[in-house]
Write a structure and sequence with these properties.
Its EC number is 2.4.-.-. The protein has two domains: 163 residues, 3-Layer(aba) Sandwich (Rossmann fold); 160 residues, Rossmann fold. Helix 3 packs parallel to helix 4. Helices cover 51% and strands 13% of the residues.
Length: 344
């Protein structure tokens, strides 16, 4: 979510619209988190009382993030300021479905009260409309800058085919089925392969799993990677793997596709609307180790297929998920809502 907001800032929209970013959450002790949330809330409240706010754009995930941001949303609504409630949570459905009936009704009311709810894909739009039928729901996908790479370089003969995973190491992202599938794919194919895993989380548990599966010598654990180091990994990757159980619209997949890297992922969240099966990569059901292994082996064995899928994915991101496509749509929404307020 933070990466999305940082992307908007980099696009210049903060300057063009005089946007002030209030971050009501930090990692740390409970007292620090409470102080940060209170400080952010009173900053907003002061500006609302001063008539300094034309629009509030809220970015929310699930659980604590949803409730914390809902306080900001309801407060802005009380001042009759337009509110965009931008939902990023990959497990929002799981979070809402687990709430007691009274809280589900409260959630529906909050989503109905704001000016519009922004979601990342049509599947999430359908879900939110089911939760709050009267809410106005707008699809605005995540986007990534397009790197200056025209065609993925040819894979060097004899070099291992590199599979890349970037994300939190744990169950939700499907890391353990991925390790099992990679071990099976290596047994199925004579093509040399390596799996690079960038991320933090259950690092030691994942390393032990790799040792138990006999693939420790073919798996690199890189820790959390950002900036130029991450871009270098994308440049060198042959296949991007994200076998998650829950997702919204992963920026990491968009980044991989923008670099011309074919994607192997799962049919969850907005991923099936992004990755076209057989064109930009392969999709399997979450947790299906045999299917994941089969697609790994196919992609490892066919360099021409990888290049075709990578080129197709890059064209798709350029046409639908680039800054040039998404940022103007957000600015159009800003213009609509602020103009409507002035007209009242």
């Amino acid at each position: 979510m933070r990466a999305v907001v940082e992307g908007y800032r980099a696009s210049g929209i903060f300057k063009r619209w005089s946007v002030d970013w209030i971050a009501p959450h930090v990692e740390g002790s409970l007292s620090l988190r409470l102080r940060t949330a209170a400080s952010g809330y009173f900053t907003l409240l002061k500006r609302l009382f001063g008539g300094q706010v034309a629009l509030v754009h809220i970015h929310a995930a699930m659980r604590g993030s949803f409730w914390r941001k809902s306080v900001f949303a309801v407060t802005a609504c009380m001042f009759r300021v337009p509110v965009i409630f931008h939902m990023h949570g990959s497990e929002t459905d799981k979070f809402i479905n687990a709430q007691p009936e009274i809280l589900r009704r409260l959630i529906a009311t909050i989503l109905r009260r704001v000016s519009c709810v922004v979601v990342l894909s049509s599947s999430w739009k359908t879900y939110i409309e089911g939760v709050s039928p009267s809410a106005r729901v707008v699809i605005l996908p995540n986007y990534v800058p397009m790197p200056n790479v025209a065609v993925k370089p040819a894979h060097a003969d004899g070099a291992p085919v590199t599979f890349l995973f970037l994300g939190a190491i744990g169950t939700r992202k499907g890391v353990y089925p991925m390790l099992e599938a990679f071990a099976k794919a290596k047994r199925m194919s004579s093509v040399p392969m390596t799996l690079r895993i960038g991320g933090s989380g259950e690092l030691e548990k994942a390393k032990q799993a790799a040792i138990s599966l006999g693939i420790a010598d073919s798996v690199e654990f890189l820790g959390w990677v950002v900036g130029d180091a991450k871009l270098k990994l994308l440049e060198e990757a042959d296949v991007y793997v994200l076998p998650s159980f829950h997702e919204g619209l992963p920026v990491s997949i968009l980044e991989a596709m923008s670099y011309g890297v074919p994607v192997l992922s799962t049919r969850v969240g907005g991923i099936p609307e992004l990755v076209r099966e057989g064109l930009d990569g392969y999709l399997v059901e979450a947790g299906k180790v045999d299917d994941l292994a089969d697609r790994m082996a196919r992609l490892a064995a066919d360099a021409a297929l990888r290049r075709a899928m990578g080129a197709s994915g890059r064209e798709r991101v350029q046409a639908n998920y680039s800054e040039a496509m998404v940022v103007p749509a957000l600015e159009a929404l800003y213009t609509e809502l602020t103009t409507q307020r002035r007209a009242k």
